[in-house]
Amino acid sequence: MSEAVIQVENLTKKFGDFYAVKNIDFEVERGEVFGFLGANGAGKTTVMKMLCGLITPTSGKAMVAGFNVFGQQNEIKKNIGYMSQRFSLYEDLTVIENITFYGGIYGLTNAEIKERAYRLIEMHGLGEVKNQLLASLPLGWKQKLAFSVALIHRPQIVFLDEPTGGVDPITRRQFWESIYEAAHSGITLFVTTHYMDEAEYCDRISMMVDGEIKGLGTPTELKQLHHAKNMDEVFVNLARKKEFIE
Amino acid sequence: MQVAVKIENIRKTYGDIVALKDISLRINEGEIFGIIGPDGSGKTSLFRILATLLLADSGTVSLLGLDVVKDYKALRKMLGYMPGRFSLYQDLTVEENINLFASLFGTTVAAQYDIIKDIYSQIEPFKDRRAGKLSGGMKQKLALSCVLVHKPRILLLDEPTTGVDPISRKEFWGILKRLKAWNITIVVSTPYMDEAMQCDRVALIQDGNIMSVDTPDNIVNEFPARLYAVKTSNKHTILTDLRDFEYTGSAFAFGDHIHFTDVRTEFTNDELKAYLEEKGHTDIDISETTATIEDCFIELMRKKI
Q1: What ipTM was estimated for this complex?
Q2: What average pLDDT does range A6-20 have in this prediction?
Q3: Cβ-based neighbour number of residue B113 at 10 Å
């Protein structure tokens, strides 16, 4: 691992006079599972939106999958996948129809869609439900499908925004196994979560507080630095809020 | 101890889906009772039945001796229900929202200030701000103030901490514990297993079934096997290697360790260590550990499957 697939330098986003993100710097390497943590309102979503090419930064530099967040946003979108807790899947389409639909959106040919849909269904064990309407499926299946859809166009990076919120503890762990699998195939995973035990599953973590990155390193490094026995303690240490100073 | 909530054989279906499968439960007055389970386990259906907003297919529920169907009007005055989704008026200010809730119950903020003070005073400096413009943590505090303003005897809080960061979550539990001084019965649901430890008693719920009801300490103490935390230098392969071990009962990731049980009663660290070394692991650390609520939840789920 040595090739940076996300490079961020002095990145800033202001809304009016308010600095949502203030001069942040970090790099993410290819094939890395990168945990992006922070309290509510710390600026995580704003950073994700900038890196996904959805909003333009105020200043600074950022390259994502080889493209510039200033001006090459459409190229970025073709090279990344995105999955959030609020899945943007169609409840009245079947599993296979959802995959086909997203393949079409990304401009894949019918032959490509067919071949990739087959592989994704096999990889995520979706075979037994592939012809069922999404509305009839439990959350765990929808989550697997949402991840499959985020991978259909073979993106270099997948952004996972609280992907495991609310699912049962076994499904949550199975989901992390598919995250590792994707990482082993060379995909970079950029993950936010509120489960601190999941922070430990990441290769490296950044911790945002009030628009700035206050911690960056492997879970082991951060725990040592903060004399903490787990990531929950690190989080509390770093993010302990100045209540209601706005 | 008085029973505040009595649930008898409640069943709720939506078409072919059975959301609650003949559930029975008793919740005592003044306790913080946790309903712990993932999305889709039936938590919200149960809360809506308790809040007199949804009719069960069969079974009975009474709160404070009043029936949720027959006596719903009298009951609603005694309940404070906070739904999972933020349901205040986004374009009213903080103050307008709380005044509205107070007037709906025929009271005023001033008359009830003693009970809401601990929480409301934290958001009062922003009383002229529209609710829609508040941060997540502040919205949650306003919502709690609004359900408390009529001094309810039972609070029904459906996933108040979902999507909230760990620090705000800890703060919220602190507030709930202080509310106990008012002898309010608090029924609270959460998908975060670690929050079970904050409750007096909990019910673990999955697929519309209650798998266990007890104090969190008792649930943890009843974990049926000796549990070991295993860690090596290679966190990507340790899990699959452990699962291939001949005597593995279960192996699940917990933070930076794998929680492991052995099917035999006689277990020696050395044997597992030798096996892992053979698989190429180094820095092997195996130590006995105590189960968490999440270990117990997983164990109960596995028993069912």
Answers
A1: 0.82
A2: 95
A3: 12
Domain residue spans of chain A: 4-245
Q: What's the pTM value of the predicted model, to 2 decimals?
A: 0.87
pLDDT tens figures, B74-88 = 999 999 999 988 788
> Out of B37, B165, B206, whose CB is closest to A194?
B165
The residue of B35, B41, B159, B165 whose CB has the most chain A CBs within 10 angstroms, and thus the best one to mutate to test that interface, is B165
What CATH number matches the domain at A4-245, 2.102.10.10, 3.30.390.50, 3.20.20.70, 3.40.50.300?
3.40.50.300
Asked if B284 contacts B208 with a C-beta cutoff of 8 angstroms, the reply is: no
Å from A94 to nearest chain B CA?
18
Look at strands B209-214 and B58-63 and give their pairing.
unpaired
For residues B39-56, average pLDDT? 95
DSSP string for residues in B266-280: S--HHHHHHHHHHTT
**Alpha-carbon gap: B135 to the closest alpha carbon of chain A (Å):** 7
Q: Do B256 and A232 touch (CB under 8 A)?
A: no
Q: Examine the pLDDT at A67 and tell me if it is beyond 60.
A: yes
Q: How far is A236 from chain B (nearest CA, A)?
A: 6
Residue B279 pLDDT more than 80? yes
- Residues of chain B found within 8 Å of residue A36, distances taken between Cβ atoms: none
**Is the CB of A230 inside 8 Å of chain B's CB atoms?**
yes
d(CA B294, CA A167): 12
Q: What pLDDT does residue A2 have?
A: 67
